Amino acid sequence: MDMLVQNKQEVRFRTGETIFKQNTGSSHIICFRKGIAKVYVEGDNHKNLIVKIVKDSDIIVSGEILTQSLRPFTVTAVTDVECCFIDSARIVELLFSNLHFTLAFLEKYHQQSHQMFNTLVMLTQKYMPGKVADTLLRLKNDIFLQNPFYIPFSRQELADMSAMTKESFVRVLSEFKDSGLVATHGKSFEILDEEGLVALSRNG
């Protein structure tokens, strides 16, 4: 631990600031201490695909720390964020010298990759109601852990999480409200029928 924190850089980002940019060099991992950020792939014509939401205590490993490859995604602060940048070279030293650390690190890396893989599968194999249901369930059960919950995301960002246009997302969300599945008040969301959302998510 002393070796890791010896040269760490503590950085604060304001809402909307880029923490790191897609296709730039990868030399650090990022440990989030406070706040929420979005991890997304920048596509053509300003179309983004949000593949992960990170929050307190999460770790982002970008690219391959052994090869110093380019970052495959952008990370931007959704709220004010406090995080630490840790030199990847320090991580590599521990990977070679501490088996317990290596196993724990690989498990964390696997969890991050598995979650993103599941997200991509969901976005490519489900119809729009299933995508919206999945997004709302992930926000409630994985990010905010409460119901109702306040989201700092815009409707466009919610659409980017679901691989949909903003107009399509808003239309499906309105249908969910009319059906009694969810209730919204501005940026406050409440899931009224979780079993119904789970059924929509499961059936796609």
List the helices and strands and how they pair.
Layout: H1 2-6, E1 9-13, E2 18-20, E3 28-34, E4 37-42, E5 48-54, E6 59-60, E7 74-77, E8 81-87, H2 88-97, H3 99-125, H4 128-144, E9 149-150, H5 155-161, H6 166-178, E10 182-185, E11 188-191, H7 194-203
Antiparallel strand pairs: 1-8, 2-7, 3-6, 3-8, 4-5, 4-7, 9-11, 10-11
Descriptive report:
This protein has 204 residues and is of the alpha+beta class. The protein folds into two domains: 122 residues, Jelly Rolls (Sandwich); 78 residues, Winged helix-like DNA-binding domain superfamily/Winged helix DNA-binding domain (Arc Repressor Mutant, subunit A, Orthogonal Bundle), CATH 1.10.10.10. It is built from seven helices and eleven strands. The strands form three sheets. A four-stranded antiparallel β-sheet has the order 1-8-3-6. Strands 2-7-4-5 form a four-stranded antiparallel β-sheet. The longest helix has 27 residues. It is elongated, with a radius of gyration of 18 Å. The mean pLDDT is 86.
